[in-house]
Write a structure and sequence with these properties.
12% helix; alpha+beta; four-stranded antiparallel sheet; binds zinc ion; 83 residues; 4 strands; single chain
């Protein structure tokens, strides 16, 4: 999706909400909780054809914080596919 192509309908009509202000909406929408005192704002990618939305953590520092604080998934041998 970051390359401008929708993974669902293969359309190239993809829009990026990186410059939307305010980035985090009311009541903490458009964010994910990182820890008790920290939330990460998200970049939204929206397909203009099918309406599919992908969200990415916007700030590099928040990404680092998540990697520090969150438990990492452990890939199991049976989970060969995507996800
Ligand atoms: Zn689409």
């Amino acid at each position: 999706m970051k390359t401008g192509k929708c993974p669902k309908c293969q359309s190239f009509d993809v829009y990026i909400g990186t410059e939307v202000f305010p980035k985090s909406g009311p009541f903490g929408s458009n964010t994910i909780p990182v820890s008790l005192t920290s939330v990460a704002a998200l970049d939204n990618y929206v397909c203009g054809e099918c309406g599919y939305v992908e969200r990415y953590v916007a700030e590099e520092s928040k990404l680092k914080e998540i990697k520090r604080k969150w438990e990492k998934t452990k890939p199991s041998p049976s989970a060969a596919g995507p996800e």
